[in-house]
Amino acid sequence: MLQLTIRAYDFVTRLPPGPAPGGTAAARAALGSRPTARQAPRLGRSVTVDFELSEDQMAFQDVARTFARERMAPEAAEWDEHAIFPVEALRAAAELGFGGIYCREDHGGSALGRLDAAVIFEELAAGCVSTSAYISIHNMAAWMIDTFGTEDQRARFLPKLMTMEHFASYCLTEPGAGSDAASLKTKAVRDGDHYVLNGEKAFISGGGASDVYVCMVRTGGEGPKGISCIVVEKGTPGLSFGKKEKKMGWNSQPTAAVVFNDCRVPVANRLGEEGDGFAIAMRGLDGGRINIAACSIGGARFCLEKAVEHMGVRKQFGRKLAEFQALQFRLADMAIELDAARLMVHRGAAALDAKHPDATQRCAMAKRFATDAGFAVANEALQLHGGYGYIREYPIERVVRDVRVHQILEGTNEIMRLIVARRLLA
Fold first, then answer.
1. Do residues 35 and 14 make contact, with C-beta atoms less than 8 angstroms apart?
2. Residue 163: Cβ-neighbour burial (10 angstroms; 0-12, 13-18, 19+)
3. What is the pLDDT of residues 253-269, one digit of tens each?
4. ∠ CA 335-340-344 to the nearest 5 degrees?
5. Cβ atoms within 10 Å of 292's Cβ, excluding its own
C-alpha cells in the first residue's frame, strides 16, 4: 500500500465507516457507508496519508463503473448524435444514490464526501462525459439547497431531486456576465412576499428540461454583496427559455437561456439571507470544479485505454504501433499526466471534506490542471488513432468534443489561474 508521512498541516485522514445510507437496498449496500472527515491534529505532529481507496470507496467505484459500462457507454453515441436527454438513465443513476451524492440522508441523499464523489464521477464519465457532467450540475444545485436551505425548503425540493424525478440547474452566467460573475444584472425586486425577477441567464445546462433552477440574482447594489440566491420552479409565470443551443459537445444535456419577464417567485424560495448569493454560488463552484475535473479524467482515461488497445492491433511498416518506442513514450506521458491530475483532484476534494482554508485554491489548481490534461490526453489518443480517431464510428472524437468545454465552464482556466495568483499574492 502506497503511503507517505507528511506534516500535520497538509493532511486529511478518514474515520472508519458509519451507518449505511438509506435508499434502494441493494444499491446502497454496494455503495457502502459514508466516510467522514476527521479534524487534523495539532501542527507539527507527523501523520500518514493513504493514497489507496478504502474498501467502501472501491465498492461504490465498482458500482459506478458497472453502471457506466452497462447503462451509459452503449447509448452514449446515440445520445450525442440525436441530442437525447437520457431521463431514464439519469433516474437509474439516482436509484444508486447518484442524485444526491453529498446531500444529507434525511431526504434521500447518500451523504458521501467530495473525495467519494470524485471517484464516482471519474467512473461515470468513462461511460459518457456529457451525461456525467449533467449529473454533477444537478448534484451541485441540490447540495446548495441542502446546505443553505431551511428545513421547509429542503423538505419541499430535495426528495424529488434525490430520485431525479425532478432535475436541477445552476444559473449564474449571463450574456454580459461570464467570468465577471459579480457583475450580473438579473434583478429581483421585493414586492410583498414575492420577488419580481427580470433578466436572462445564458448557457444553462438543463435549461428548459430541469424542474428547479437555483438562480443568482441582484437584490441589492452593485458587486457581490448585492447578489442573492433564489430557487425558481419550472412553470412559474414569467419564466421562459431560449432556443436549444447547438453545441460542439455535451449534446446529451440541453443548453438554453433561462429568461425572467416579471417572474414572481416567493420570498420563501430564497436560500440564505439577501446578499448571501455570491458566496453560496462560489461555494457550489468549489465542488463543481472538482467534479468536472474528475469527469475530464474519466473521459481521458477511457481514451487512453482505447489508444492502448488500438496500438496493440494496428500495424504499420510491418510492426504493431505499440512496438515503436516514440509512441510508447507518448502513452507513458499520457498516463503520467492523468495520474498527476487524479492526485490533484483527490487532494482538492479532501480539502473540501476537511474544510481546509486553502480548499478553494486547491480546487482551482485541480480544475485547471485536470481539465487541461484531460483534453490533451483525449486529443493525443485521437492522434494515435489516425483517421479512425476522427470518424464517429469510433468514440474518441466524441470525448474530445465533450471534454473541451471543461476548460471553459465552472470558471475558465484563466480564472483558475487568477484565483491561485491572488492567493499567492495576498
1. yes
2. middle
3. 999 999 999 999 999 99
4. 145
5. 30
Please list, in sequence order, all residues whose beta carbon lies within 8 angstroms of the beta carbon of residue 202, skipping any fewer than 6 positions away. 173, 174, 175, 178, 257
Q: Do strands 212-218 and 168-171 pair parallel, antiparallel, or not at all (unpaired)?
A: parallel
Q: What CA–CA distance (Å, rounded) separates 111 from 19? A: 11
Give residue for cell 506534516.
7
Active site residues: 410
Q: What angle do CA 281, 115, 182 make, to 5 degrees?
A: 15
Beta-ladder partners of 47: 6
Residue pointed to by grid coordinates 444584472: 185
Instruction: Reduce the DSSP state of residue 81 to 3 states and report it.
Output: helix
Scanning the structure block, which residue is given the C-alpha cell 441523499? 109
CA atoms within 13 A on the CB side of 29: 2
Rounded (5°) CA angle 412-137-178: 30
Distances (CA, A) of 21 to 63, 103, 350: 15, 11, 20
Q: Give the span between the Cα atoms of 183 and 218, in whole angstroms.
A: 9
CA separation, residue 48 to residues 18, 100, 108 (Å): 21, 31, 34
Against a cut of 0.85, is the pTM above it?
yes
Q: What is each CA distance from 226 to 176, 216, 230, 276, 296, in whole angstroms?
A: 17, 10, 13, 8, 34
Strand ranges for 267-332 from DSSP E: 270-271, 315-316, 319-320
pLDDT band for 50, please (50, 70, 90 cuts). confident
At 361-403, the pLDDT tens digits run 999 999 999 999 999 999 999 999 999 999 999 999 999 999 9
Measured CA distances, 18 to 32, 55, 113, 123, 301 (Å): 9, 13, 13, 24, 31
Nearest to 6 by CA among 380, 350, 426: 350
List, in sequence order, every beta strand (DSSP E) within 206-254. 212-218, 227-233, 239-241
Dihedral angle at the C-alpha atoms of 296, 302, 304, 310, nearest 10 degrees? -150
CA-to-CA separations, 178 to 71, 158, 213, 311, 326, in angstroms, rounded: 34, 28, 18, 41, 41
DSSP one-letter code for 37: B
Type of residue numbered 155 = A
- CA 263, CA 163: separation in Å to the nearest integer? 27
Query: What pLDDT is recorded for position 7?
Result: 28
Assigned C-alpha cell, 423 = 492567493
